[in-house]
């Protein structure tokens, strides 16, 4: 945080606690405590379920809490579209853009390409845990049921090889979770059930086009998918977050992720 801005906006109680400390070292501790309290105060909670460090507040912004307008983020239009979210919230979104690009290169059906484009959109800005379920729920009112189903099931399918299409257990997961990692029983059960489902292959194709590392030098623009989005994503005219759908609050949470309440 900006020390100078903090010092010039200190409350009387903070000044008193620092002044009242007996030694220089105690004063330094009192200052550090006060700054840490102040940091927590500006940002009520870190990014939703994020494991990243709490972001720095903006120097000179003396509002006790951020509400609606977080100056660290670009402002969203009044009726945001999916593409607005890609540009103003999800960017750079390399993982999903590269996955969708790969699906296109591999000649996949447009539904699969859109599923690849959307399969992890909640991860960077909203929530990581159980992300397949969250992503599916976020987009369910706006896409074909098959797309939402496939995105939900990719949560489980990622962990299970399928030789019929050449899908192997991701090498990255051995690094991430250890060689002896075993998926939880609910994941195993979801996979068992998905295998018998008529849409199994749609979900499997998401995992097949799921890139676990960036392709260096490949820059993909979401505008490359404007037509596919236009044909398969029912953009609400009021904007995502303002259409009164059961998931509107999820989109609003990405518009204003640091609202105090
Ligand atoms: Fe994923
Ligand atoms: Fe992914």
Question: Which strand-content bin applies to the residues?
Answer: under 5%
- The pLDDT mean sits at 87
Query: How many distinct folded domains?
Result: 2
Portion of residues within helices = 40-55%
CATH domain topology of the largest domain? Hypothetical protein af1432
Query: Which secondary-structure class do the elements indicate?
Result: mainly alpha
- Flag low-confidence runs: none
Shape: globular
What would you note in describing this structure?
By secondary structure, the chain is mostly helical. The chain has helices at 3-8, 12-20, 24-42, 82-90, 94-105, 110-118, 131-139, 145-157, 171-177, 185-195, 200-208, 226-232, 248-255. The protein is globular. The chain starts with a helix and ends in a 6-residue tail after the last helix. It binds fe (ii) ion (FE2) (2 copies). The site of one fe (ii) ion (FE2) has 5 residues, from helix 5. One fe (ii) ion is lined by residues 95, 99, 119-120, 210.
Summarize this, please?
This protein has 13 helices and no strands. It is an all-alpha fold.
